[in-house]
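Input chain follows. Return structure tokens only.
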Amino acid sequence: MRTDDSVLTDRNASPMYSDRSSSVLARHTLPIEWFDTVAQGRGTPEITRYFWKTERSRRLLLLRTLLDTVTDDPSLAGPLPPVKELAGVFEAAQKAEPEAFLDLLMHPQVGSSMAYVLRRHRGGASGSVPFWVDLGTIHLIALVAAAKCGVDWATQVPGRHGTVMLPGLGMARLTETPAQVVVDASVRGGRIELRHDGRTVDVPPTAGSGDDTTRHDGDRWLPLRKVSVGDDLRLTVWLDDLDPFRDLADPEPPARLAPDAFDRWTGLLGAAWSLLCRDHRHSAEALADGVVSLVPLKPEPGWDTRSASNGEAFGSVLVSEPPDATTLAVSLVHEFQHIKLGALMHLFHLTEEDDGSLYYAPWRDDPRPLAGLLQGIYAFFGIAEFWRRHRLSVTGRDRLLAEFDYLYARGQTVEALRSVRRAPALTGKGRAVIDGLERSAADWAADQTDPEVVRLTTLTADCHRVGWRLRHFVADPADVTALTRAWLAREPATAIAPAISAPHPVLRWAQRIPTFVRRRLFDDDGLSGSASPLAAADRYLVMGEPFAARAAYLEWIDAGPEDADDSILAWTGLALALGRTGADRAADALAQRPDLVRSVYGALRASGVAADPVAVAGWLAPVLSDSGS
């Protein structure tokens, strides 16, 4: 969806190029120097404010699209008033108080809720409640708009599991029943009253205004709380634990933070913001007006701190409770990078239509489409920049860990930049973004770094890359058969076809080496002992004993256990060990096509031939080099 007729211009010249849309609400002019700033991974307060304006156009278009889509079928609203009756309320509210109306419309969860309703209407989501309950979010937005803009009105709104969420204000609790109900609602003199089954909730007149950190929950009313931190540069966010549309997918029930948890979040945010203002001032200045909602996520097993953002909820960051302020600070930088690039992508096509191609993203365990890879590159550029500066402000083990995180994010970003440059679906402006990031990253190569941290960083990155290829690609069966025959006939390896993409259905897989690397950085004693021979091999590799690791991996592979995940770990480890013991040809073959080496070795074993995995890899190396695989 394009919001407007977007033009990239020089302030002193005519437009150079543009993206045009048939649905025009406004004409936004983006100065070339601002585009260049964003393309280089940077930002400014002026650019942030500009994106709020362009996103406002998109939000108006989203509202108009939703109203037009559902107005013609009154049955969609179920027991609620027909949607066509809301248009007059929106028009009256916008006419009476245009800024208040637009402020409400730009509340992040207003955008995500409307986008979800459209997605569900078009079959992109199924939903767990009747459609009219989700559609009724438009009635709730109209109700709040009437209150904020001084329009008196009486209507009916949906109750979701006995609650009513007023966007940007808070949640009313009207009944204990889990059923979906119709709630009578009215606005008089800016005051909202909700009524159901003999119960009434008068929404406090100050709801949604000022600094809400001191306001307390009532029996029937939970305010959406606001947190403001910082001294000369302030960051003010809704700490949203209520809105059903605060997450990325289907609506979520409220998860009210207990007082001690709310205090922890407030303290973490204050400390994270102080760190950003002190050591990353330019990032903080651009971010200060760009993040207005912070959504606590539930932690998930197997993940460290999770964070996310939603393109239709401009200004909202989702993050699970971090262990410390530094983690929260880098999460804010990370997600604001996504927010910035998302706004740019709403104005200009950076990629052509998705052609189904998938790419390796060093920070993800699953293959990614080009647009997703571009978003990831942009975010990890910001992460690398954060750690690049942060490592200079800490000492001891903290310095080593920060340097590791910098080198790892730096390597991920540079690798992805090199690979994406070959993507045929990049547009001219997409390539301009890649060029800009590469120019910004050019200074990284001159940074002085600890050799041991470099070794551990490279080991971790190689571990992920080889394991990813083993997990998501398979060798052509015809190639495996031909190569097996050639080996048995003592002939050179034959020509091969590219690997077959077969993305694994399970997103994450166990990787022991990254865990061992962090233990190594913290404390050498943390690697003493092992639970299995395979873990011992990984430990040898991390401790810088590649010959011992190579022998242990070969012994494990020769034993031939059946566990598929352990097999990936063993072949990955062997690939990493070989290059560190001088077996470069075999190491290159395993790094390029571990799927093929493993498959040929397995076919030989199945034929009763006791082959050496290193010899098989070395034998395949010339044909892999010749084919460019």
